[in-house]
Amino acid sequence: MRHAYPAEAIRAAEAPALAAGEPLMERAAYAVAAAVVAEARRRGLALVGARALVLAGGGNNGGDGLFAAAHLARRGLVVTAALLRERVHPEGLAAARRAGVRLLPVSGDGAQGHTGMPAPGLAPVLAVADDADIWIDAIAGIGLTGGLRGVSGALVAALNERRERSILDPLVVAIDVPSGLESDVGAVPGEAVRADVTVTMIGLKPALLLPPAAARAGRVELVDLGLAEALAARPAPVRRLLGVDVADLWPVPGPADHKYTRGVVGLLAGSDAYPGAAVLASSGALRTGCGMVRYLGPEGAARMVLARHPEVVTAAGRVQAMVLGPGIAVGAPVPESAGRALVDSEVALVVDAGGLDWLPTDPTALAGRRVVLTPHAGELARLLTTRGGDPVERSTIEADPARWAQRATELTGATVLLKGAVTVVAQPGGTVFSQSDGTGWLATAGSGDVLAGILGALLAGSDAPAGELAAAAALVHGRAGVWAARNRRGSEGGPSPVGDPVSATGRGPLDDRDPGAPITASDIAAAVPEVVRGILAH
Ligand SMILES: NC(=O)C1=CN([C@@H]2O[C@H](COP(=O)(O)OP(=O)(O)OC[C@H]3O[C@@H](n4cnc5c(N)ncnc54)[C@H](O)[C@@H]3O)[C@@H](O)[C@H]2O)[C@@H](O)CC1
Ligand SMILES: Nc1ncnc2c1ncn2[C@@H]1O[C@H](COP(=O)(O)OP(=O)(O)O)[C@@H](O)[C@H]1O
Ligand SMILES: [K+]
């Protein structure tokens, strides 16, 4: 499990070490320099003579950057430090000066530079940036509040624009968090650095896991500075499940199990207009493994489900979990079986698409129950607008998914799995999970129906908390998409068992050189057993 901590917890964890005189900044700077060297080597960059620009702000983040600048200068890099405040970390500045780092005071507003010389504005630092192989972002870390202001904001805007226009392709390494992000949240308040690598200190920060901020961080390297234990005692409000965590909560059947103890999933999915959702949700549930799938939707869709999956039962009966709504249009009346499941506190629920309208209006009605809503941003916008009173746009949700998912838990009393490139799971009063396991190939019609089936099977087969199971379902669904995109071999009928020697965890990363193949929602479901096996065999 990855844990992310708010700035307050990081500061509390480091305080005793700082009071005891532990050289935390020296350790941090050394780790940054080492990460820069390693990444430069990976890119085939000759270190001696390589040009690095350090953007140094006025706080301790800038101090980390100035000490790192000194390390790099001593290794033969040609280092310039742009000083973005009149006063920067004095010891860091002295170390940089001693090591031969070129110091470039920067000011956009004609203020005096720290050397007493008039600060020359942005043009000189941009000229250095244009020539540099490496940019190191040490403008601000956990101390930033609000969007980047003043010269720092203008500089980052100018640098981003240059990179966007592909004039430049420097290696960009951010210290602690890409500057411009507020480390506790996923929203991006304004201009922010786009890093290839972020070297973060002591513990992960929520901004490094949550969308959309996390996309600015690139690859994240955690350097605990020896404080992992001090931090572990504090609550981590944002988390990410890993394969091993999913293995721990996966319901593996034992010798005493029979189909009813393994769990029965009821499906109220699919309609005459969208019958395929019934098939895909069934496929998701069956491939995840459960004792039985009961399909309870309309007859036409039931025939299609049985044609594809003769193992599905269409008779009514007891279920441990019920999937309500995939492939059911907004405004459809509540079917009787759905109405019963909504008031039966013994039944766990997955509520998707048209089913979201069937929820009770009183958020306390679902208290103590395992209920997971699985909207995408558009569906969540609708739900928040009808429930909350004020209109909420899809784009507003996409700018801060975790916040709005949490808002939806307050309004409904349910756990909310908000789908997207990064899927977030919010629970009433609880931890937020952020799962980034998939690929853009998953954005295909019916993909969400498969996810609903996977989650239904997990809720039916396990007593684990709904939030964890929802995060696990997102992980398995994401990896199944990756596995399918990696192993697709053209023929119909799902991924071929013979393919690349990709790990069965489905984790072989897709990249620019091998972006994978297009997949269908059926392919995703078909890949689930391989992914589960890989996770369990770990
Ligand atoms: N205390 C220590 O010895 C350690 C500190 N560490 C580093 O120190 C950082 C925290 O240091 P600080 O608390 O000094 O804070 P930061 O250095 O993160 O941020 C404060 C700086 O940002 C500027 N700033 C704040 N809001 C701004 C805005 N909206 N626009 C433009 N500038 C803004 C401030 O004027 C100040 O210069 C961590 O992120 C980490 O990088 C690590 O080296 C670990 C050890
Ligand atoms: N860019 C992306 N990268 C990774 N996963 C994605 C991306 N876009 C969508 N997904 C995933 O694909 C699925 C789409 O589900 P949904 O929007 O409900 O589609 P549908 O209603 O057609 O089934 C979700 O699980 C979502 O997280
Ligand atoms: K930074």
TrEMBL record:
InterPro entries assigned: Carbohydrate_kinase_pred_CS, CARKD, Nnr, Ribokinase-like, YjeF_N_dom, YjeF_N_dom_sf
Entry cofactors: Mg(2+); K(+)
Reactions mediated catalytically: (6R)-NADPHX = (6S)-NADPHX; (6S)-NADPHX + ADP = AMP + phosphate + NADPH + H(+); (6R)-NADHX = (6S)-NADHX; (6S)-NADHX + ADP = AMP + phosphate + NADH + H(+)
Manner of cofactor binding, per the entry note: Binds 1 potassium ion per subunit.
Keyword Transport appears in the UniProt entry: no
Region listing for Disordered, in residue ranges: 486-519
One matching Pfam family: YjeF_N
Binding site for (6S)-NADPHX: 60-64, 141-147, 176, 277, 327, 376, 449
Entry GO MF terms: ADP-dependent NAD(P)H-hydrate dehydratase activity; ATP binding; metal ion binding; NAD(P)HX epimerase activity
Residues that, per the record, bind AMP: 419-423, 448
Record-listed K(+) binding positions: 61, 137, 179
Keywords associated with the record: ATP-binding, Isomerase, Lyase, Metal-binding, Multifunctional enzyme, NAD, NADP, Nucleotide-binding, Potassium
The YjeF C-terminal domain, residue ranges: 242-535
Domain YjeF N-terminal: 10-233
EC number, UniProt record: 4.2.1.136, 5.1.99.6
UniProt GO BP: metabolite repair; nicotinamide nucleotide metabolic process
Keyword Nucleotide-binding: yes
Family indicated by similarity: In the C-terminal section; belongs to the NnrD/CARKD family. Belongs to the NnrD/CARKD family.
NCBIfam families on file: yjeF_cterm, yjeF_nterm
Subunit architecture: Homotetramer.
Primary role: Catalyzes the dehydration of the S-form of NAD(P)HX at the expense of ADP, which is converted to AMP. Together with NAD(P)HX epimerase, which catalyzes the epimerization of the S- and R-forms, the enzyme allows the repair of both epimers of NAD(P)HX, a damaged form of NAD(P)H that is a result of enzymatic or heat-dependent hydration. Bifunctional enzyme that catalyzes the epimerization of the S- and R-forms of NAD(P)HX and the dehydration of the S-form of NAD(P)HX at the expense of ADP, which is converted to AMP. This allows the repair of both epimers of NAD(P)HX, a damaged form of NAD(P)H that is a result of enzymatic or heat-dependent hydration.
Name the UniProt record assigns to this protein: Bifunctional NAD(P)H-hydrate repair enzyme
Source organism per UniProt: Occultella aeris
